[in-house]
Amino acid sequence: MLENGVKETADSIGLTAFDWAAVEGHDSILHFLLQLNPEYSKATDIYGRTALHHASKQGYTKVVRVLLDSGADPSALDALNITPLMAAASCEIPDRALNVIGKVFFYFLVSWHFTRKCICKVLFKKKKEI
User: Fold this and answer.
1) Would you say residue 2 has pLDDT above 50?
2) ANK repeats located where (predicted)?
């Protein structure tokens, strides 16, 4: 339906089919929807939560991996300043929580390192020009 231009709708708190797939742990559905529109991973509900927040809180490791691989931001803050990493820490199943925390933290460190490296290159280049 989405391929044919059917308008996407959200429920009363802003959750779309994409978000519900994350909440329920359907990694294959998320993968399919991300092929249609990679920007889904950046969308938020009315509380500022992304699909990564929802999947992290539920402890769905495969879903978290799909979202992170598609560019979801592991440092995204919701309306209460909660990151997906913090949401993962509130997962009620300890084994799941640890797996998700490990994945989210790894992606956070990689993105932080890459950003720092880019900033250093720009600053070094500017210094050479002076």
Assistant:
1) no
2) 47-79
